[in-house]
Write a structure and sequence with these properties.
Blueprint lengths: L4 E5 L4 E6 L4 E5 L1 H23 L3 H21 L4 E2 L11 E2 L2 E6 L5 E7 L2 E8 L1 H17 L16 H6 L3 E2 L1
Parallel strand pairs: 3-5
Antiparallel strand pairs: 1-2, 1-9, 2-3, 4-9, 6-7, 7-8
Helix pairs in contact: 1-2, 1-3, 2-3
């Protein structure tokens, strides 16, 4: 699973996603972030529907539990944490204009962030990492006061306490 750091730049009003100690960074606009969350949640939901063949309500309940378990375990085991951290220099970040999504049968996803046709960075996430990424991005969007509304019925809103504290999410 990929290690990444996610911060919010108030001056740029963008989420900054970085890997490799901040050497490789992509800036995510509000519009791209909303679309990414919706598309990723939909893809995971469709994959879960195809695998289980159950009703939408049951699928959403199962996905809600899986999401809660993945995020709770990641924070409980120390694989993810919130910390104050200096964001990468926004001038060194390329604005992601496209995100290519490849969903794996095992439930994970590969996200390739591009600026025009140039690959900026890629995240290779397992199933739990995908849930954690969605939760982290949704939490940072709440911190940024981006009102996305409901992204998916199985995804609960980010905790207000983290948003109020201006916490940074690190994975």
């Amino acid at each position: 699973m990929s290690n990444y750091r996610l911060t919010y730049s108030k001056a740029e009003d963008r989420l900054l996603l970085s890997i490799e100690n901040g050497q490789t960074s992509a800036a995510l606009t509000r519009r791209l972030t909303r679309s990414l969350l919706q598309t990723l949640a939909k893809a995971i939901g469709e994959q879960k529907s195809a695998a289980s063949g159950k009703s939408e309500a049951l699928r959403n309940t199962i996905m809600g539990f899986e999401h809660a378990k993945a995020t709770t375990e990641a924070f409980g085991e120390g694989r993810a944490r919130r910390e104050k951290h200096q964001a990468p220099d926004p001038g060194s970040c390329k604005v992601a204009t496209v995100v290519e999504l490849a969903v794996r049968q095992s439930g994970g996803a590969i996200l390739t962030f591009k600026h025009a046709d140039e690959k900026v960075l890629a995240l290779n996430l397992n199933r739990d990492g995908t849930y954690l990424f969605i939760a982290s991005v949704a939490e940072m969007a709440t911190t940024a006061e981006w009102d996305f509304g409901t992204i998916a019925s199985w995804l609960e809103p980010a905790a207000a306490t983290a948003a109020e504290a201006g916490a940074k999410v690190l994975h």
